[in-house]
Write a structure and sequence with these properties.
heterodimer, A: 11 helices, 1% strand, B: 432 residues, Rossmann fold, Coagulation Factor XIII, Chain A, domain 1, 2 domains, 20 strands, globular
């Protein structure tokens, strides 16, 4: 029985193709998503805005004084600054989960580095993220001019790209793992769609987390997304750098996840065509 | 081969037949059963699609891979393309590779023809600028210039396939893998595809071509590999490869009992055809003949009772078209009376003047007195005809050419050479 199996494809020989294909598939994702839709790319603005309005209504009108938040910023702004990075996170991952299965024809009939599928989902969500950021900038200006709150530009804004890189690494690692897992077991997608709902409420997206010492709060503190979302808000709204301990913890998790995710994806990718 | 562009060394590929778990529930039940049973590494659930396959293809060579369904042809191509990874052995491919496993794989229905050219071109390895430069050529080759801005979901299946093929042949790869995709489009388009492939070969592209169309394969590839049940049965000159493949196919047909041995279709089982083989003039068994070679059909029949008068008929058809030839003993004026037992029946055909192709024969026998069908086989006896490219078209007929000098006075009065043009005749006809 033969034992040795080789194909002269290596990680590094694949990188140029990955790099060349990534923009093309990202463009395809965006193009397909907004084709035959009236609002087109306007949805990238509308969805987070709708979410913000919804949570603003729930937490400032519907619940009668039950939630008194001391946020130092208008609630709408607080919520939107959390919703924008959260939407990047959840949209990317929701698309990643299904990315290999949805591209079955390509996976079984053409060869190129399969990382392109999850990575292009992230890239296209990144475009939506950029558009939503413009809306956030608009909101900042609006509340500043209205005088409810004063925006002070500081050097803390320089942290923004660093936070974005860490978040993207985290998403990429997790996204590859999820895409791969869903290829072998379609249940992953269903389970994930429930988990991500829960994840949102323990990530300080629309409400701050409880600050007590209960076991629940301690478990939530392990969630690597909390320092990320908080760091965005700190940099943009509060003009201060991230809480270092938490942010370093998240960065390490993101890096490990990326390395582990990518290596597992690579190793499994040769089985994709026959297992899909 | 040191200068090989494509090299397979001892390549094996195994597929699992059972034991795929699409949902976690399957995995859990499977895992539980595995705990109770002993583990089989490759028991009945493993299927070797390729085992220990060795071949090398040099630069600029065109090689056809032929074989029956399930022989491992597509698996070999997918391994070459990198879609699958071997379970054993080593595969080396040098140079830019384009694999045409399925035309239009990766087309997105919502995108326009133009957008899909860019998408598919990039997937097949072309750069943006390169695609832009070739866009017009791709569209005109596919004949979809007017529809470039229409979403491909509104294309006809022919347009869709033509566009897919057109992109692939414009990639200008160093190695081109083609899997049975030339059957798309109409006859004219197919011809153009073949021309294009021939030109790629002339330009030094290495081509590996998987197909069931043996004539098409031979027109491009001088060399062919016959795969059978995951192993190389033959590797060499294309014509010989096709001959061997046809032979193997006829054996496979013959050995495929019981459904083939039974008197399928009609026939009451009184007569059984034990064997039908084609013999050449020099008494060798063959299935591959030239159009002007004599061939004999030798049939071994078993008659379960004596028949006073019977009519035998042999019919030939091609895979796609209907009946092409028929030989009927009754109409030839033969009256066969068969004793019970084994009989040898021979039909001699001095020539079958067809220019080429693969054909299948069946045999029928009637009782001339009662009209009951005694035997009616399916079209399971193959025959290949090849005149080595001496004729194109359907027939290959005996003919002679002459050229001689003529004295002026012996020239016939000319009325064609002067003024008649094609339209003139038609006009006359329409006036009348």
């Amino acid at each position: 029985m033969p034992v040795r199996a080789e194909r002269n494809i290596t990680f590094f020989s694949e990188l140029p193709r990955l790099w060349a294909l990534l923009p093309v598939l990202t463009w395809r994702d965006l193009r397909v998503r907004y084709k035959q839709s009236l609002l087109g790319i306007g949805w990238a603005v509308l969805l987070p805005v709708a979410m913000m309005l919804l949570f603003t209504f729930v937490f400032t009108r519907a619940i009668d004084g039950a939630l008194v938040l001391d946020l130092h910023v208008p609630y709408s702004l607080y919520a939107f600054a959390g919703i924008v990075p959260w939407t990047f996170f959840s949209t990317s991952l929701n698309n990643c989960v299904n990315s290999l299965v949805a591209n079955r024809a390509l996976v079984t009939k053409v060869y190129f580095p399969r990382e392109v599928f999850p990575l292009s989902c992230i890239a296209s969500a990144l475009v939506d993220f950029a558009i939503a950021l413009l809306v956030l900038a608009g909101l900042v200006v609006y509340f500043h001019l209205r005088g409810d709150w004063t925006f002070v530009p500081t050097r803390a804004l320089l942290f923004f790209p660093v936070i974005l890189v860490v978040q993207t690494m985290f998403i990429a690692g997790l996204g590859m793992l999820l895409a791969m897992a869903n290829l072998f077991y379609r249940d992953v997608r269903q389970v994930f769609s429930v988990l991500i709902q829960l994840w949102m409420f323990i990530s300080a997206v629309v409400v701050p987390l409880p600050q007590d010492q209960s076991p629940w709060a301690q478990m939530i503190a392990l969630n690597p997304l909390v320092p990320l979302i908080t760091a965005y808000r700190d940099a943009i709204l509060h003009g201060r750098g991230p809480d270092l301990a938490g942010f370093i913890y998240t960065s390490i998790v993101a890096l490990l996840l990326l390395i582990f995710g990518w290596i597992s994806f690579r190793r499994a990718s040769f089985r994709f065509a026959e297992c899909i | 081969m040191d200068d090989a562009v494509v090299q397979f060394s001892g390549v094996s590929k195994r597929f699992r037949i059972a034991q795929t778990h699409d949902t976690l529930r399957d995995l859990l039940t499977y895992g539980f059963r595995r705990l109770l049973q002993k583990r089989h590494a490759d028991g009945p659930s493993a299927f070797w699609a390729l085992s220990d396959v060795d071949f090398a293809v040099g630069r600029g060579e065109a090689v056809g891979i032929i074989g029956p369904n399930g022989a491992g042809k597509s698996t070999a191509l997918k391994l070459l393309a990198g879609i699958l990874r071997p379970d054993g052995g080593k595969i080396t491919v040098r140079g830019r590779l384009a694999a045409l496993i399925e035309v239009g794989a990766g087309f997105h229905g919502d995108l326009t023809g133009r957008e899909n050219v860019f998408l598919n071109g990039a997937i097949l390895g072309m750069g943006r600028r390169e695609i832009r430069g070739k866009l017009d050529a791709i569209a005109s080759f596919a004949g979809v210039e007017q529809f470039l801005d229409v979403p491909v979901k509104r294309y006809s299946s022919g347009m869709y396939a033509r566009l897919g093929f057109s992109i692939a042949v414009h990639v200008e790869p160093e190695v081109l893998l083609v899997d049975e995709v030339l059957s798309v489009g109409d006859a004219v388009f197919r011809l153009r595809c073949l021309e294009r492939m021939r030109r790629l070969v002339q330009d030094g592209v290495t081509v590996v071509f998987v197909t069931h169309d043996l004539t098409q394969m031979q027109s491009i590839c001088p060399r062919a590999i016959v795969l059978d049940q995951g192993r190389i049965a033959f590797d060499g000159e294309a014509r010989e490869a096709v001959g061997r493949y046809m032979n193997a196919m006829s054996r496979a047909f013959a050995g495929r009992s019981p459904d083939f041995a039974a008197p399928a279709g009609g026939g009451n089982g009184v007569v059984e055809l034990l064997d039908l083989r084609w013999m050449s003039e020099d008494n060798k068994e063959t299935v591959w003949i030239g159009p002007r070679e004599e061939v004999r059909a030798e049939m071994t029949l078993r008659l379960s009772r004596s028949i006073r008068s019977m009519v035998v008929e042999l019919n030939m058809r091609s895979a796609l078209d209907g009946s092409l030839l028929s030989f009927n003993s009754g109409r030839s004026g033969c009256d066969f009376a068969g004793e019970a037992g084994i009989q040898r029946l021979t039909l001699t055909i001095p020539e079958i003047p067809l220019s080429g192709g693969q054909f299948f024969w069946n045999a029928r026998i009637w009782d001339a007195e009662s009209g009951t069908t005694l035997l009616d086989t399916p079209f399971r006896y193959p025959m290949g005809i090849d005149d080595c490219g001496k004729a194109t078209g359907l027939l290959s007929l005996e003919h002679h050419w002459t050229l001689e000098a003529m004295s002026p006075e012996s020239r016939p009065p000319s009325f064609i050479g002067n003024t008649v043009h094609a339209g003139g005749v038609c006009e006359d006809l329409s006036v009348r």
